[in-house]
Q: What sequence folds into this?
């Protein structure tokens, strides 16, 4: 009986330790997935941003009015900066598997929290510049057809 209790205690301890060992990894993976959801939501907007930028550039070639040209240039600059922000973020992002080789769980979670904040800012920059660019493009196109 004594051996059975000892065996059960050792088995329970081993099981508890093995499950506890996976919990940090699972938390890291969940944080990664949450962060990547934001990325996956806005990454497809890159094509739309490029389209709006190309159309704004095309309209600006024959533009004579300085104020409108400045608006277009600002919109193009904002679209480019948002696009570059996404590329820079993706270029420096480290996978959890790589992080686990060098960092503790706490350091990984802090890193993922910081990266989540960065991609949230990238999302805001992308959506804001796209909205402004689209509104300007629509206004300029409507103006061009009215003339």
A:
């Amino acid at each position: 009986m004594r051996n059975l209790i000892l065996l059960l205690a050792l088995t329970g301890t081993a099981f508890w330790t093995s499950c506890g060992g996976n919990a940090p990894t699972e938390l890291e993976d969940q944080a990664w997935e949450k962060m990547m959801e934001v990325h996956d939501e806005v990454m497809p907007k890159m094509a739309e941003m490029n389209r709006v930028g190309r159309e704004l550039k095309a309209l600006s070639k024959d533009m004579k009015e300085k104020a409108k040209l400045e608006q277009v240039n600002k919109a193009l600059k904002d679209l480019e900066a948002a696009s570059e922000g996404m590329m820079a973020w993706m270029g420096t992002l480290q996978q959890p598997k790589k992080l686990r080789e060098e960092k503790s769980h706490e350091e990984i979670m802090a890193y993922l929290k910081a990266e989540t904040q960065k991609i949230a800012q990238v999302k805001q920059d992308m959506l804001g510049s796209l909205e402004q660019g689209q509104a300007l493009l629509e206004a300029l196109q409507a103006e061009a057809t009215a003339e």
Q: What stands out?
A: The radius of gyration is 25 Å. Helices lie at 2-42, 45-60, 66-92, 96-100, 105-146. Confidence is low (pLDDT under 50) at residues 6-10, 12-20. The CA atoms of residues 42 and 123 lie 6 Å apart.
